[in-house]
Amino acid sequence: MPRPYDLPPMTALVCFEAAARKLSFKEAASELNVTPAAVSHQIKGLEAELGLALFRRQHRGVDLTEPGAYLFLALQRGFETMSDAVRETRGPQEAEDVTVQATTAVSAFWLTPQIATFWREHPEIVVSQRVTDVAGTGSGADLSIHYGAAAEVDEACEVLFHDEILAVGTPAFAAAHGIATVADLPDVPLIHVTAEDTGWTGWADWLAHFGEEPPRSRGLTVNNHMIALQLARDGAGAVLGWTGLIGPLLERGELVPLVAERMASPQVFYLRTHPRASAPARAFRDWLVRTQDGAARIPPGQP
Which long-range CB contacts under 8 A does 178-183 form with residues at least 24 apart? Predict the structure, then answer.
């Protein structure tokens, strides 16, 4: 029988989405209540059907390839739409303790580790994430994380961090292109993020801040910051990174500052508390804000 939609088996897609979100076959298997071997088998079958690799298998885990990152983003949006439809069809249900909405990059590089730490301290409170890169107000969530102008921050919001923006790439990329100063950057391959309604600072503005000309190289353009960072980790080019998000990548040496110069972000990351927020949600909010108040920052000007 022909498939009504041009899709691989749904089981394989579900396994891939979980493994891509967790960046771990083992954690995906635990979430899906199957064995890691079963997850690996489904993903290998999916890769065989598509004729390309979706993950890079490494000693310490897995990373998404560029096609894998694009497929993950598309599946995530599709599953979100289905989840919303099911929720509306099902009607009112007992709510989870805390639901936080964030973008893919914020979730992967910042929020998920924060939730893991919070859960170890407060195992009685369950925190769930609603991950989406579609601009919105955070409807249906207790809390939502946004990147925007300080003027948008009102009495329902708390500033989480005000970052610095720096140019980063792999050590091999820096060595191959002989990057020593900001003046070297307009001529090397650059990765541009053009996602709508995000307010991300682009290369032209960042370079102009230091008195340099716009990029002269052709570069790559994507509409998702997480995919841009993945491309940079693959050595495809230099990318702009926000210190509050890419700290773990810098600490592990996967990306390094290409020059010493840093630009203060014109916007801030802030947390909005929605009217539906429960007492546990407000407790998590207070913990998150308190943690950020005491968090160590990467010293300005230090590569």
Answer: 179/238, 179/258, 179/259, 180/259, 181/259, 182/207, 182/210, 182/212, 182/259, 182/261, 183/212
Under DSSP, is residue 303 helix (H, G, I), strand (E, B) or coil?
Answer: coil
Question: CA nearest 148: which of 138, 139, 140?
Answer: 138
pTM above 0.85, yes or no: no
Q: Which residues, other chains included, contact 51 with Cβ-Cβ below 8 Å and sequence gap of 6+?
A: none
> In Å, what is the CA distance from 158 to each residue of 64, 153, 270, 289?
33, 7, 6, 7
* CA dihedral for 102, 108, 110, 116, sign (positive or negative): positive
What token pair was written down for 252? 């592990």
- Rounded to the nearest 10 degrees, the angle between the axes of helix 10-22 and helix 25-32 is 120
Cα separation, 283 vs 277, in Å, equals 10
- Summarize pLDDT for 93-142 with one digit per residue, the tens: 554 589 999 988 888 888 988 998 998 899 889 898 888 876 655 567 89
Whole-angstrom Cα distance, residue 79 to residue 185? 39
For 18, the token pair is 């979980």
Question: How long is the chain?
Answer: 303
pLDDT band at 14; cut points 50, 70, 90 = very high
- Residue 18: count other Cβ atoms within 10 Å of its Cβ: 21
Write out pLDDT tens, residues 286-296: 999 988 865 53
Spatial distance between the Cα atoms of 169 and 190, rounded to a whole number of angstroms: 10
Q: Which residues pair with 271 in a beta bridge?
A: 145, 158
pLDDT value at 299 more than 50: no
